Amino acid sequence: MVEDGPVREVLRRPRAPYTRELLAAIPSAASRGARLAGDRPAATAARGEPASPRRSDDEVVLEASRLTKTYALRGPGQERFTALDDVSFRLHRGEALGIVGESGSGKTTCADIVLALTRPDSGEVRLHGRPWSVLTERERRASRRLVQYVPQDPLSSFDPRWTVGQVLAENIPRQDSRAQRRDLAVAALERVGLTAGHLTRRPRSLSGGQRQRVAIARALIAEPEIIVCDEPLSALDVLIQAQVLDLIADLRAELGTSLLFISHDLGVVHHLADRVLVFKEGRVVERGDVDEVLKAPRHAYTRELLASLPGQALRTT
Ligand SMILES: Nc1ncnc2c1ncn2[C@@H]1O[C@H](COP(=O)(O)OP(=O)(O)OP(=O)(O)O)[C@@H](O)[C@H]1O
Ligand SMILES: [Mg+2]
Protein backbone atom coordinates (compact mmCIF):
# COMPACT_ATOMS: atom_id res chain seq x y z
CA MET A 1 0.00 0.00 0.00
CA VAL A 2 1.59 3.23 -1.09
CA GLU A 3 -1.15 5.62 -0.01
CA ASP A 4 -4.49 5.58 1.83
CA GLY A 5 -7.12 8.04 2.97
CA PRO A 6 -10.61 9.36 2.22
CA VAL A 7 -11.49 8.92 -1.48
CA ARG A 8 -11.81 12.62 -2.25
CA GLU A 9 -8.59 13.45 -0.47
CA VAL A 10 -6.53 10.78 -2.26
CA LEU A 11 -8.04 11.39 -5.69
CA ARG A 12 -7.89 15.18 -5.56
CA ARG A 13 -4.60 15.62 -3.75
CA PRO A 14 -2.56 12.46 -4.32
CA ARG A 15 0.75 12.43 -2.47
CA ALA A 16 2.41 9.21 -3.61
CA PRO A 17 4.09 9.51 -7.03
CA TYR A 18 2.41 6.28 -8.11
CA THR A 19 -1.08 7.62 -7.28
CA ARG A 20 -0.24 10.78 -9.22
CA GLU A 21 0.89 8.70 -12.17
CA LEU A 22 -2.34 6.67 -12.11
CA LEU A 23 -4.53 9.77 -12.07
CA ALA A 24 -2.49 11.48 -14.79
CA ALA A 25 -3.03 8.44 -17.03
CA ILE A 26 -6.83 8.84 -17.10
CA PRO A 27 -7.85 10.07 -20.55
CA SER A 28 -10.30 12.98 -20.76
CA ALA A 29 -11.10 16.13 -22.70
CA ALA A 30 -8.25 17.85 -20.85
CA SER A 31 -5.65 15.27 -21.94
CA ARG A 32 -6.28 15.69 -25.68
CA GLY A 33 -3.08 16.01 -27.68
CA ALA A 34 -0.90 15.13 -24.67
CA ARG A 35 0.87 11.90 -23.77
CA LEU A 36 -0.71 9.93 -20.96
CA ALA A 37 1.92 7.40 -19.96
CA GLY A 38 4.59 9.94 -19.02
CA ASP A 39 8.07 8.51 -18.73
CA ARG A 40 7.22 4.94 -17.91
CA PRO A 41 10.03 2.78 -19.26
CA ALA A 42 7.75 0.40 -21.13
CA ALA A 43 6.20 3.27 -23.05
CA THR A 44 7.07 3.90 -26.68
CA ALA A 45 10.36 5.52 -27.59
CA ALA A 46 8.99 8.99 -28.21
CA ARG A 47 8.73 11.37 -25.26
CA GLY A 48 6.92 14.61 -24.59
CA GLU A 49 4.23 15.89 -26.91
CA PRO A 50 3.14 13.40 -29.53
CA ALA A 51 3.53 14.56 -33.10
CA SER A 52 0.21 15.72 -34.41
CA PRO A 53 -1.64 13.15 -36.49
CA ARG A 54 -1.11 13.36 -40.22
CA ARG A 55 -4.68 14.21 -41.00
CA SER A 56 -6.00 15.01 -44.38
CA ASP A 57 -9.58 16.20 -44.49
CA ASP A 58 -9.66 15.96 -48.28
CA GLU A 59 -8.69 12.33 -48.48
CA VAL A 60 -11.59 10.01 -47.73
CA VAL A 61 -10.18 6.54 -47.04
CA LEU A 62 -13.47 4.87 -46.27
CA GLU A 63 -17.05 5.80 -46.97
CA ALA A 64 -20.12 4.03 -45.60
CA SER A 65 -23.37 4.93 -47.33
CA ARG A 66 -26.84 4.16 -46.06
CA LEU A 67 -25.96 0.90 -44.32
CA THR A 68 -28.89 -1.19 -43.16
CA LYS A 69 -28.81 -4.61 -41.53
CA THR A 70 -31.73 -6.67 -40.26
CA TYR A 71 -31.83 -10.04 -38.52
CA ALA A 72 -34.61 -12.58 -38.62
CA LEU A 73 -36.48 -12.93 -35.35
CA ARG A 74 -37.58 -16.42 -34.46
CA GLY A 75 -41.19 -17.12 -33.75
CA PRO A 76 -44.56 -16.42 -35.31
CA GLY A 77 -44.89 -13.69 -37.90
CA GLN A 78 -41.17 -13.92 -38.73
CA GLU A 79 -40.59 -10.24 -38.30
CA ARG A 80 -37.13 -8.82 -38.77
CA PHE A 81 -35.16 -6.86 -36.23
CA THR A 82 -33.33 -3.79 -37.52
CA ALA A 83 -29.83 -3.72 -36.03
CA LEU A 84 -28.55 -0.93 -38.31
CA ASP A 85 -30.75 1.63 -39.99
CA ASP A 86 -29.52 3.96 -42.73
CA VAL A 87 -26.06 4.70 -41.31
CA SER A 88 -23.65 6.83 -43.35
CA PHE A 89 -20.25 8.31 -42.52
CA ARG A 90 -16.84 9.10 -43.96
CA LEU A 91 -13.45 8.35 -42.50
CA HIS A 92 -10.60 10.64 -43.59
CA ARG A 93 -6.91 9.84 -43.69
CA GLY A 94 -5.36 10.04 -40.22
CA GLU A 95 -8.68 10.75 -38.58
CA ALA A 96 -10.06 9.11 -35.46
CA LEU A 97 -13.82 8.68 -35.64
CA GLY A 98 -15.41 7.66 -32.34
CA ILE A 99 -18.61 5.65 -32.04
CA VAL A 100 -20.53 5.76 -28.77
CA GLY A 101 -23.96 4.44 -27.86
CA GLU A 102 -25.79 2.05 -25.60
CA SER A 103 -25.40 -1.70 -25.64
CA GLY A 104 -27.25 -3.24 -28.59
CA SER A 105 -27.33 -0.01 -30.61
CA GLY A 106 -25.56 -1.55 -33.60
CA LYS A 107 -21.93 -0.51 -33.08
CA THR A 108 -20.37 -3.95 -33.55
CA THR A 109 -22.72 -4.67 -36.46
CA CYS A 110 -21.43 -1.50 -38.10
CA ALA A 111 -17.80 -2.50 -37.43
CA ASP A 112 -18.39 -5.96 -38.90
CA ILE A 113 -19.80 -4.44 -42.09
CA VAL A 114 -16.84 -2.04 -42.42
CA LEU A 115 -14.53 -5.05 -42.02
CA ALA A 116 -16.56 -6.98 -44.58
CA LEU A 117 -17.23 -9.76 -42.09
CA THR A 118 -20.96 -9.16 -42.48
CA ARG A 119 -22.82 -8.06 -45.60
CA PRO A 120 -25.26 -5.16 -45.27
CA ASP A 121 -28.84 -5.73 -46.50
CA SER A 122 -28.54 -2.44 -48.35
CA GLY A 123 -26.02 0.33 -48.61
CA GLU A 124 -22.34 0.04 -49.37
CA VAL A 125 -18.84 0.56 -47.95
CA ARG A 126 -16.19 1.92 -50.32
CA LEU A 127 -12.44 1.93 -49.71
CA HIS A 128 -10.49 4.72 -51.42
CA GLY A 129 -13.55 5.35 -53.56
CA ARG A 130 -13.58 1.78 -54.85
CA PRO A 131 -16.05 -1.01 -54.06
CA TRP A 132 -15.33 -2.91 -50.84
CA SER A 133 -18.42 -4.42 -49.23
CA VAL A 134 -19.76 -5.72 -52.55
CA LEU A 135 -16.55 -7.57 -53.51
CA THR A 136 -16.20 -11.31 -53.21
CA GLU A 137 -13.79 -12.52 -50.53
CA ARG A 138 -11.35 -13.53 -53.24
CA GLU A 139 -11.36 -10.04 -54.76
CA ARG A 140 -10.91 -8.51 -51.31
CA ARG A 141 -8.03 -10.69 -50.16
CA ALA A 142 -5.20 -8.50 -51.47
CA SER A 143 -6.50 -5.46 -49.58
CA ARG A 144 -7.61 -7.19 -46.37
CA ARG A 145 -4.40 -6.24 -44.56
CA LEU A 146 -5.20 -2.54 -44.99
CA VAL A 147 -8.21 -2.74 -42.66
CA GLN A 148 -7.33 -4.27 -39.30
CA TYR A 149 -9.54 -5.21 -36.39
CA VAL A 150 -9.17 -5.11 -32.63
CA PRO A 151 -12.31 -7.01 -31.67
CA GLN A 152 -14.48 -6.70 -28.58
CA ASP A 153 -13.81 -10.36 -27.76
CA PRO A 154 -10.24 -11.11 -28.92
CA LEU A 155 -10.15 -14.76 -27.82
CA SER A 156 -12.76 -15.79 -30.37
CA SER A 157 -10.67 -14.18 -33.13
CA PHE A 158 -7.50 -16.20 -32.42
CA ASP A 159 -6.99 -19.67 -33.81
CA PRO A 160 -6.73 -21.71 -30.59
CA ARG A 161 -3.93 -23.87 -32.04
CA TRP A 162 -1.65 -20.94 -32.70
CA THR A 163 0.90 -19.34 -30.41
CA VAL A 164 1.09 -15.57 -29.99
CA GLY A 165 4.20 -15.62 -32.22
CA GLN A 166 2.28 -17.34 -35.03
CA VAL A 167 -0.68 -14.98 -34.66
CA LEU A 168 1.64 -12.00 -35.10
CA ALA A 169 3.87 -13.47 -37.83
CA GLU A 170 0.84 -14.15 -40.01
CA ASN A 171 -0.01 -10.46 -40.11
CA ILE A 172 3.45 -9.17 -41.12
CA PRO A 173 2.99 -7.57 -44.53
CA ARG A 174 6.41 -8.28 -46.00
CA GLN A 175 8.16 -11.52 -46.91
CA ASP A 176 10.87 -11.17 -44.28
CA SER A 177 13.17 -13.92 -43.05
CA ARG A 178 12.23 -15.95 -39.99
CA ALA A 179 14.61 -13.99 -37.78
CA GLN A 180 13.30 -10.66 -39.05
CA ARG A 181 9.73 -11.75 -38.43
CA ARG A 182 10.59 -12.76 -34.91
CA ASP A 183 12.24 -9.37 -34.26
CA LEU A 184 9.17 -7.57 -35.62
CA ALA A 185 6.88 -9.69 -33.45
CA VAL A 186 8.95 -8.98 -30.33
CA ALA A 187 8.99 -5.24 -31.11
CA ALA A 188 5.20 -5.27 -31.52
CA LEU A 189 4.79 -7.08 -28.19
CA GLU A 190 7.07 -4.62 -26.43
CA ARG A 191 5.10 -1.70 -27.82
CA VAL A 192 2.01 -2.98 -26.01
CA GLY A 193 3.88 -3.74 -22.79
CA LEU A 194 4.42 -7.51 -23.34
CA THR A 195 7.72 -9.33 -23.84
CA ALA A 196 9.44 -11.93 -26.03
CA GLY A 197 8.45 -14.48 -23.38
CA HIS A 198 4.86 -14.20 -24.61
CA LEU A 199 5.72 -15.39 -28.15
CA THR A 200 5.35 -19.06 -27.31
CA ARG A 201 2.19 -18.68 -25.24
CA ARG A 202 -1.24 -19.54 -26.53
CA PRO A 203 -3.87 -16.77 -26.26
CA ARG A 204 -6.08 -19.00 -24.10
CA SER A 205 -3.42 -19.02 -21.37
CA LEU A 206 -3.20 -15.21 -21.22
CA SER A 207 -5.19 -12.80 -19.05
CA GLY A 208 -7.98 -10.74 -20.66
CA GLY A 209 -5.80 -7.63 -20.75
CA GLN A 210 -2.84 -9.51 -22.22
CA ARG A 211 -5.07 -10.98 -24.95
CA GLN A 212 -6.38 -7.54 -25.76
CA ARG A 213 -2.79 -6.33 -26.11
CA VAL A 214 -1.93 -9.23 -28.44
CA ALA A 215 -4.94 -8.24 -30.56
CA ILE A 216 -3.66 -4.66 -30.67
CA ALA A 217 -0.12 -5.84 -31.56
CA ARG A 218 -1.58 -8.04 -34.32
CA ALA A 219 -3.37 -5.03 -35.81
CA LEU A 220 -0.32 -2.74 -35.57
CA ILE A 221 2.14 -5.17 -37.11
CA ALA A 222 0.18 -5.18 -40.38
CA GLU A 223 0.87 -1.44 -40.86
CA PRO A 224 -2.76 -0.89 -41.78
CA GLU A 225 -4.42 2.21 -43.23
CA ILE A 226 -7.46 1.75 -41.01
CA ILE A 227 -7.88 0.13 -37.60
CA VAL A 228 -11.38 -0.69 -36.43
CA CYS A 229 -11.28 -0.91 -32.64
CA ASP A 230 -14.26 -2.34 -30.76
CA GLU A 231 -13.80 -1.58 -27.04
CA PRO A 232 -10.07 -2.28 -27.33
CA LEU A 233 -9.15 -0.95 -23.89
CA SER A 234 -11.93 -2.33 -21.71
CA ALA A 235 -9.79 -5.03 -20.05
CA LEU A 236 -6.70 -2.88 -19.53
CA ASP A 237 -5.55 -1.15 -16.36
CA VAL A 238 -5.23 2.60 -16.62
CA LEU A 239 -1.43 2.68 -17.12
CA ILE A 240 -1.39 0.09 -19.91
CA GLN A 241 -4.41 1.84 -21.42
CA ALA A 242 -2.42 5.10 -21.38
CA GLN A 243 0.51 3.38 -23.05
CA VAL A 244 -1.73 1.94 -25.79
CA LEU A 245 -3.43 5.31 -26.36
CA ASP A 246 0.00 6.94 -26.75
CA LEU A 247 1.00 4.19 -29.14
CA ILE A 248 -2.12 4.75 -31.25
CA ALA A 249 -1.31 8.49 -31.35
CA ASP A 250 2.23 7.70 -32.57
CA LEU A 251 0.92 5.38 -35.24
CA ARG A 252 -1.44 8.03 -36.55
CA ALA A 253 1.43 10.51 -36.66
CA GLU A 254 3.90 8.11 -38.30
CA LEU A 255 1.68 6.31 -40.78
CA GLY A 256 -1.43 8.46 -41.08
CA THR A 257 -3.52 5.50 -39.90
CA SER A 258 -7.24 6.19 -39.54
CA LEU A 259 -9.28 4.84 -36.65
CA LEU A 260 -12.86 3.79 -36.22
CA PHE A 261 -13.02 3.62 -32.45
CA ILE A 262 -15.98 2.14 -30.58
CA SER A 263 -15.96 2.80 -26.84
CA HIS A 264 -18.22 3.08 -23.82
CA ASP A 265 -15.63 5.29 -22.16
CA LEU A 266 -16.41 8.86 -23.12
CA GLY A 267 -13.15 10.04 -21.54
CA VAL A 268 -11.20 7.84 -23.95
CA VAL A 269 -13.30 9.04 -26.89
CA HIS A 270 -12.79 12.66 -25.90
CA HIS A 271 -9.05 12.12 -25.55
CA LEU A 272 -8.61 10.42 -28.89
CA ALA A 273 -11.37 11.11 -31.39
CA ASP A 274 -11.67 14.02 -33.80
CA ARG A 275 -15.31 13.41 -34.61
CA VAL A 276 -17.92 11.22 -32.99
CA LEU A 277 -21.09 9.37 -34.00
CA VAL A 278 -23.75 8.67 -31.36
CA PHE A 279 -25.69 5.45 -32.03
CA LYS A 280 -29.13 4.67 -30.67
CA GLU A 281 -31.31 1.79 -31.82
CA GLY A 282 -29.32 1.31 -35.01
CA ARG A 283 -29.38 4.95 -36.09
CA VAL A 284 -26.89 7.80 -35.83
CA VAL A 285 -28.77 10.28 -33.63
CA GLU A 286 -25.98 12.86 -33.35
CA ARG A 287 -22.64 13.46 -35.05
CA GLY A 288 -19.97 16.09 -35.16
CA ASP A 289 -16.75 17.42 -33.74
CA VAL A 290 -15.95 15.57 -30.50
CA ASP A 291 -15.75 18.78 -28.44
CA GLU A 292 -19.06 20.03 -29.76
CA VAL A 293 -20.91 16.75 -29.25
CA LEU A 294 -19.50 15.91 -25.82
CA LYS A 295 -19.46 19.45 -24.40
CA ALA A 296 -22.68 20.77 -25.92
CA PRO A 297 -24.79 17.77 -26.96
CA ARG A 298 -27.95 18.60 -28.88
CA HIS A 299 -29.71 15.25 -28.75
CA ALA A 300 -31.46 14.29 -25.50
CA TYR A 301 -29.89 10.82 -25.64
CA THR A 302 -26.34 12.19 -25.81
CA ARG A 303 -27.11 14.41 -22.80
CA GLU A 304 -28.36 11.38 -20.89
CA LEU A 305 -25.23 9.44 -21.82
CA LEU A 306 -23.00 12.25 -20.54
CA ALA A 307 -24.99 12.74 -17.35
CA SER A 308 -24.65 9.06 -16.47
CA LEU A 309 -20.87 9.21 -16.55
CA PRO A 310 -19.41 8.52 -13.10
CA GLY A 311 -16.44 10.52 -11.93
CA GLN A 312 -17.30 13.50 -14.10
CA ALA A 313 -17.04 15.87 -11.12
CA LEU A 314 -13.57 14.60 -10.25
CA ARG A 315 -12.30 14.76 -13.80
CA THR A 316 -13.20 18.38 -14.31
CA THR A 317 -11.43 19.58 -11.15
N1 LIG B 1 -26.27 -12.56 -35.71
C1 LIG B 1 -27.27 -11.92 -35.10
N2 LIG B 1 -28.52 -12.41 -35.10
C2 LIG B 1 -29.54 -11.75 -34.51
N3 LIG B 1 -29.42 -10.56 -33.89
C3 LIG B 1 -28.20 -10.02 -33.86
C4 LIG B 1 -27.07 -10.64 -34.46
N4 LIG B 1 -25.97 -9.86 -34.26
C5 LIG B 1 -26.43 -8.79 -33.56
N5 LIG B 1 -27.76 -8.88 -33.33
C6 LIG B 1 -28.58 -7.88 -32.62
O1 LIG B 1 -28.36 -6.61 -33.20
C7 LIG B 1 -28.35 -5.59 -32.20
C8 LIG B 1 -27.07 -4.80 -32.32
O2 LIG B 1 -25.98 -5.61 -31.90
P1 LIG B 1 -24.49 -5.06 -31.81
O3 LIG B 1 -23.62 -6.19 -31.44
O4 LIG B 1 -24.19 -4.33 -33.07
O5 LIG B 1 -24.60 -3.99 -30.59
P2 LIG B 1 -23.48 -3.10 -29.91
O6 LIG B 1 -23.88 -1.67 -30.11
O7 LIG B 1 -22.14 -3.51 -30.40
O8 LIG B 1 -23.63 -3.45 -28.36
P3 LIG B 1 -22.52 -3.63 -27.18
O9 LIG B 1 -22.21 -2.22 -26.71
O10 LIG B 1 -23.26 -4.40 -26.14
O11 LIG B 1 -21.37 -4.35 -27.75
C9 LIG B 1 -28.53 -6.29 -30.87
O12 LIG B 1 -29.85 -6.18 -30.46
C10 LIG B 1 -28.17 -7.74 -31.18
O13 LIG B 1 -28.89 -8.62 -30.34
MG1 LIG C 1 -20.52 -4.43 -29.50
Automatic annotation (TrEMBL):
InterPro entries associated with the record: AAA+_ATPase, ABC_transp_ATP-bind, ABC_transporter-like_ATP-bd, ABC_transporter-like_CS, Oligopep_ABC_C, P-loop_NTPase
Organism domain of life: Bacteria
Protein name: Putative peptide ABC transporter, ATP-binding protein
ABC transporter domain boundaries: 62-306
PANTHER family: D,D-DIPEPTIDE TRANSPORT ATP-BINDING PROTEIN DDPF-RELATED, TRANSPORT ATP-BINDING PROTEIN
Similarity comment: Belongs to the ABC transporter superfamily.
Stretches for region Disordered: 31-60
Molecular function, one GO term: ATP hydrolysis activity
